[in-house]
Amino acid sequence: MACAATSGLLWYGGFSAGLFPLLLAGIPLSLLFLFSKEPPPPVYSVVAIALFLASAAIGILTAYQPEPATAKFWVITGSIFICFALIAQPIQNLRLVFWFLAFTGLGLSIYFLLGYDWLAQPADLMVINRLGRSWMSVRPDLPVSTASANVFGGILAVLLMLTLGLWLDAWRKRQAVDLAFTGLLLLGQGAGLLMTSSRAAWGAVALGVLALAFWIASKRFGRLKRIHPFAIFQRVLLVSTGIVVVGLLLFPSQLYALAKDLPGADSAGTRAGLFINTLKLLPDFWVFGGGLTSFSGLYSQYVLVIPFEYFRYSHNLFLDLLIEQGWLGLLAFTVLVVACLLKLLAGFRSLHHHSRTLRSIYPIIFSGWIVFLAHGLFDDPFYGEKGTPLFFLMPGLTLLVLKPVMGRKNESKTRQRRRLPRFGVKYWGAGLLVLIFAFGLAYSQQILGAIYANLGAVRMAKIELADFPRQSWADTSLVDELEQVEPTFRQALWYNPESRTANHRLGLIYLARRDFSQAQAFFEAAQHSDPTSRGVIKSLGFTYVWNGEYTQAYRLLQILPEAESELDAYVTWWQTENRPDLARKAAEMRDFIQSAAEPRN
After folding, report:
1. Sign of torsion, CA 280 285 286 291?
2. What is the spatial distance between Cα 74 and Cα 389, in angstroms, rounded to a whole number?
3. CA–CA separation, 7 vs 348, rounded Å?
4. Which helix (H) or strand (E) segment is 107 a member of?
């Protein structure tokens, strides 16, 4: 465990020289799994993690800047080492692992409180700002700088929930000293979580605590009615999940309005727009992914059409995975998550046979998953930001606590499994392969078109974003390189003429050539395929300007609040490009928008 954590820290700090961190953790883990009496990791977990790591390796090849992508790959590898080091622990070390995580959470909380600047980065809630500024006036002046408060909020939310398991264990065992000490740890982590002002983290913790309360209430109600608590807990979870799904499907606008009315700064609109625009980026890179650490450049270049960084990540774990590692990375992680949750739920049935410590900590693992996943829907500190070394923490803890639970279950059902027909899995597997083959035949043209479009989009991003972020839009110096990508998009259109990705990228290539009429034709075809794509709308709107079609341009640009200021910037930029005619058109379009916005008498 120490070797795995050290190797992760070396990769996280960017100090990896050669394979030393890999050997530091890999050799002890290999020897441990070869000679330890502990059961090996389940096959499904090994396969899922291996596929995830393979998709991350592909993410180095597809990234427009390989150096930061390689750095993230090694951090992901370090997180996997930590996961397997957790799995390799004997169950007797469970409390020791949780004490280590509790102190880690306390250390992160102290680091945040000592380094965050509430003057430069105000919190969403004014009361938190006042508390933070008062604290800054008395805290020691240390050379400490912190990342985004939301990042710390997400990490602390998960670690605080896990620390709660130690507190419950001390409560169950009536250990006054441990109870007081874990209470202090919870207070320290809670203070840091409170001062992050991360409402998404607060809400995720509330959901985790609610799930834990459901389990405790199910046990007490089960004793009264002589019903197994798992049966009650399972029904409560199903009903709760159904209510959430129905609410999201039937009342999305009301829930969105409720989110906007929460105390503090309005971030619901920003997050909603970011999610919608990121969904429009998915068809470009869902096959192979756009590469590790590539979201910021891809989003700025092909959605916002700006040459500088605006968002570092999508604030959604699953969208980030799909954008950076494609369908293989998302599928591998989803399979691992679903398998862990199903195994955890099944283990609740036999939990009463095990030690007090396991009975206290086991439901905390399930609640920790709820916090991790719920917060991952609205932010992404564990994959898109600084929390990547702990990305596989929850799978590692899950597979650790499942060892005694599933071991007992397997022993009791060995004879029943031997009697099961061996051909059932084969028939199900064959049926699934037939369905996949039929789907591939039915949509072969679209699939091949998507593959070529994704390949072209990756190659084009490598050309256009090699020096991202830039200070201005690209000039004509990249035209020769972009022409080498054009045949790939032409091939994509041959298979699927409706490919928005191919039409959009071809329009950008002709825009770089300053062939505005041909660029307009491709952009119009792309908008016909996807009328709501923000990147296409903006590119087409500005192309109308360069073609002198101001009325058509206004129809599109009026919905973009930044259009007027960017046109003002284009006036100067086209002059530096020695195109006074286009600078004049940018000025005329700016004046057109201003006059159209003026109130009429």
Report:
1. negative
2. 10
3. 34
4. helix 94-115
pTM across the whole model: 0.88
Q: How far apart are CA 104 and CA 133, in angstroms?
A: 25
pLDDT, tens only, 11-50: 777 655 556 778 888 788 878 777 777 777 888 999 999 9
List the one residue out of 316, 391, 461 whose CA is nearest residue 86.
391
Cα 588–Cα 594–Cα 598 angle in degrees, nearest 5: 145
CATH of span 442-527: 1.25.40.10
For residues 309 and 287, give the distance between their C-alpha atoms in angstroms, rounded to a whole number: 24
Q: Which of 360, 359, 401, 345 is nearest to 232 (CA)?
A: 345
Note whether 118 and 148 are within 8 A (CB): no
Region 193-206 average pLDDT: 91
Question: 199-216 in b/e burial notation, b at 16+ Cβ within 10 A?
Answer: bbbbbbbebbbebbebbe
Burial of residue 517 (CB within 10 Å: 0-12, 13-18, 19+) is exposed
Q: What is the pLDDT of residue 356?
A: 79
Burial of residue 491 (number of CB atoms within 10 Å: 0-12, 13-18, 19+): middle
d(CA 185, CA 187): 5
- pLDDT for 228-266, tens place per residue? 777 888 788 888 877 777 766 665 555 545 555 555 454
Instruction: Spell out the domain ranges in the chain.
Output: 2-406, 442-527, 530-601
**Which residues have a Cβ under 8 Å from the Cβ of 293 and sit 6 or more positions away?**
63, 65, 68, 69, 71, 72, 324
**Confidence band, pLDDT 50/70/90 cuts, at residue 311:** confident
**DSSP-derived 3-state class of residue 140:** coil
pLDDT value of residue 96: 93
- The alpha carbons of the chain give a radius of gyration, in whole angstroms, of 27
From the DSSP assignment, how many helices (H) and strands (E) are in the chain? 27, 0
What DSSP state is assigned to residue 406? Answer: H
> Hey, what amino acid is at 416?
Q
Name the CA dihedral angle for 187, 192, 196, 197, rounded to a multiple of 10 degrees.
Answer: 20
Q: Which residue has the tokens 């999940």?
A: 241
| Alpha carbons 289 and 276: distance in angstroms, whole number | 18
